[in-house]
Amino acid sequence: MIPWMITKLAVLPGRRLEVTFADGLHGVVDLSGEGFAGVLAPLNDPNFFALASVKDGVASWPGHLEIAPDAMHIEVTRWRLNSERPERSDRQGTEQ
C-alpha cells in the first residue's frame, strides 16, 4: 500500500478538494491560493476544476492534468498537526 494514494475525492467550493488517502488520512486541500499556469492553467476555471476525479490514486482532470498526491498528503498532515496542537499561553507562571 502506498499511503499517499487517494482513495476518495470530493470537490468543494472555492477550489478545494476533500480527500481520503490509502492510509486513512482525511482532510481538505485548499488550492484557492494557487495561481495555476502553463499546462495547469485550466484549473483556474471553477467549472473545469469541478471535473476532478480519482484516477489510479491521483487527483485528475480531463486532458491528463494531475496534482501530486504525495504533496496533498503532506499538506493535510501539516494542517492536522497544526490544528491538533493545544494553544500556547503567553502567560508565564510566577514563582513564589
* Span of the ends, CA to CA: 56 Å
Outline, from the CA principal axes? globular
Structural class determined from secondary elements: alpha+beta
Q: Given the structure, what is the number of helices?
A: 2
- Report the major sheet: 3 strands, antiparallel
Strand order of the largest sheet: 1-2-3
Number of strands: 6
Beta percentage is 25-35%
The low-confidence runs, each spanning 5 or more residues with pLDDT under 50, are 88-96
State Rg: 17 Å
Name the helicity range: 10-25%
Q: Look at the structure and give the mean pLDDT.
A: 88
- The helix/strand order is EEEHEEEH
Kindly describe this structure.
Helix content is 21%, strand content 29%. It has helices at 46-49, 69-84; strands at residues 6-12, 16-21, 26-30, 53-55, 58-61, 65-67. The protein has a three-stranded antiparallel sheet with strand order 1-2-3. β4 and β5 (58-61) form a beta hairpin. It starts with 5 loop residues before the first strand and ends in a 12-residue tail after the last helix. Mean pLDDT is 88; it is low at 88-96.
